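Per reviewer request, we include the raw input and output of the structure prediction for the construct analysed in the revised manuscript.
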Amino acid sequence: MANNGPLVMVVNDDEAMLDAFGFALRLEGLNVRLHSSGDSLLADAKLPDSACLVLACHLPGLDGFEIVRRVRAMNLSTPSIMLTSVATPAIRARAAEADIWLLLEKPIMDGALVEAVTGLLRETT
């Protein structure tokens, strides 16, 4: 199935979750690129074309906040959805400071990620 919709970049170090997110978003007709690390995302030549980033907060190497900081340093204003196991007050404050569009707490319930991404895309594209 060819997906010609907006490009969504997903970063997660859990391969099963990465595949599940990719599958669900592609079913919605979105063009999805999957990355298992921040370094992989930052090296992707398609990054400037992305309409949305979905990334885990806690990743080996670069965490989600550092990835967003580096994307912003590239003069890209790509909106982001961050996934976290526990949305502590400190994580919420950092997300607000980093201008994260939405902080989603895991486990992600049925359809929540797809609804979040499509909502973000409706607002920003």
